[in-house]
């Protein structure tokens, strides 16, 4: 029976681009996604491990409740809370979140979700409740390919030192100037939102569990620092992966556009007052030239696909980075993490 299912699923795969990312499984007439996920779990896991993602299309998912049921089945009931994350996002229901709230005319760079933590999500599920009117794709890139495309001298430097992440989450005493700047930049979130608590000791406990240090300033903002490898191995296959958020924590004129980069640096002249910042693990600044080369490697591995309403995308968070393209009109993509 297993051999038949594996052969059947392999034969059903279709592809939207030459990179075969993501492979697509189209629903047969009347087919239930929940039944497919339950009956072919091992075969689907093998496909996901090979390609890094699977797009399920045409299975009739319509609501957040439909999505929750499918994600819950994929992740065996272990939906993870978005705790300690830097991205502003709303919770739709238990285990289901909005995609990052970020200006629609800007691109969200490629990243592995929460790779600035020692225990990042193992997998992600995305659901298209409202397909974008124009643009709004969720581009994907293979972390294995990115690792192979980064110039060796840069790779060696990052592998030697790792990355030190700095997160600045504002507190309840934020001054009016800081508040106004944060509204303009639209990147900042509070530690109360990020950790779902107003108890500083709870934040300290979670940060200690994550191997991070937390300091409090006069505005009661949380200044969180931790150091992690820039390259990690896949938990199952042992493959080396470019797995970090150096290129999202440190902006460049290339990554954000010159005008927004200048505004960001004018608003936050001290890098440690920015919503997020990163250095090499030894404290040295990350070179703009290195980031440009890294972003070039990421771009070379990135592919896009158009969302359709009801799409359910399963992603191995170690193997595949994701982002978001600018869009116009409506767009509602939900996410669950494991």
Describe this structure in words.
By secondary structure, the chain is an alpha+beta fold. It folds into two domains: 2-135 and 303-337, Clavaminate synthase-like (Double-stranded beta-helix, 4-Layer Sandwich), CATH 3.60.130; 144-299, 4-Layer Sandwich (Double-stranded beta-helix), CATH 3.60.130. 34% of the residues lie in helices and 25% in strands. The chain has 13 helices and 20 strands. It has helices at 2-12, 33-39, 41-51, 64-74, 143-149, 152-161, 176-185, 191-195, 200-209, 246-249, 253-256, 258-267, 288-301; strands at residues 14-15, 23-26, 53-57, 91-93, 96-98, 108-111, 123-130, 134-135, 140-142, 163-169, 213-216, 222-228, 231-233, 240-242, 276-280, 302-303, 312-316, 320-324, 327-328, 332-337. The strands form five sheets. Strands 1-2-3-17-7-20-5-4 form an eight-stranded mixed beta sheet. A four-stranded antiparallel beta sheet has the order 6-18-9-16. A hairpin with a 2-residue loop joins strand 4 (91-93) and strand 5.
CATH topology of the largest domain: Double-stranded beta-helix
The appropriate CATH architecture of the largest domain is 4-Layer Sandwich
Q: Gyration radius, to the nearest Å? A: 20 Å
The helix content, as a percent range, equals 25-40%
Quick recap:
The chain is α+β, with helices and mostly antiparallel strands and 338 residues long. 34% of the residues lie in helices and 25% in strands.
């Amino acid at each position: 029976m297993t051999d038949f299912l594996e052969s059947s699923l392999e034969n059903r795969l279709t592809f939207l681009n030459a990179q075969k990312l993501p492979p697509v499984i189209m629903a047969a007439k009347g087919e239930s996604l929940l039944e497919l996920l339950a009956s072919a779990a091992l075969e689907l896991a093998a496909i996901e491990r090979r390609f890094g993602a699977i797009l399920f299309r045409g299975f009739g998912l319509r609501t957040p409740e439909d999505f929750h049921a499918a994600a819950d089945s994929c992740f065996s009931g272990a939906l993870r809370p978005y705790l300690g994350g830097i991205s502003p996002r709303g919770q739709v229901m238990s285990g289901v979140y909005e995609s990052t709230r970020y200006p629609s005319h800007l691109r969200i760079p490629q990243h592995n979700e929460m790779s600035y933590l020692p225990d990042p999500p193992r997998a992600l599920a995305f659901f298209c409740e409202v397909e974008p009117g124009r643009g709004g794709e969720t581009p994907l890139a293979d972390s294995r390919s990115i690792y192979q495309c980064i110039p060796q001298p840069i790779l060696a430097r990052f592998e030697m030192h790792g990355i030190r992440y700095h997160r600045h989450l504002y507190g309840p005493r934020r001054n009016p100037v800081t508040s106004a700047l944060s509204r303009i930049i639209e990147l900042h979130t509070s530690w109360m939102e990020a950790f779902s608590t107003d108890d500083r000791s709870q934040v300290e406990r979670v940060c200690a569990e994550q191997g991070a240090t937390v300091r409090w300033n006069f505005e009661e903002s949380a200044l969180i620092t931790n150091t992690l490898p820039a390259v990690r191995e896949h938990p199952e296959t042992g493959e080396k992966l470019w797995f970090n958020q150096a290129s999202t924590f440190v902006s460049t004129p290339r990554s954000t556009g010159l005008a927004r980069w200048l505004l960001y640096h004018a608003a936050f002249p001290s890098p440690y007052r920015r919503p997020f910042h990163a250095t090499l693990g030894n404290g040295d600044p990350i070179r703009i030239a290195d980031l440009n080369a890294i972003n070039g490697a990421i771009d070379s591995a990135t592919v896009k696909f158009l969302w359709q309403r009801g799409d359910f995308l399963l992603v191995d968070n170690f193997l595949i980075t994701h982002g978001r393209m600018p869009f116009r009109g409506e767009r509602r993509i939900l996410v669950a993490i494991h």
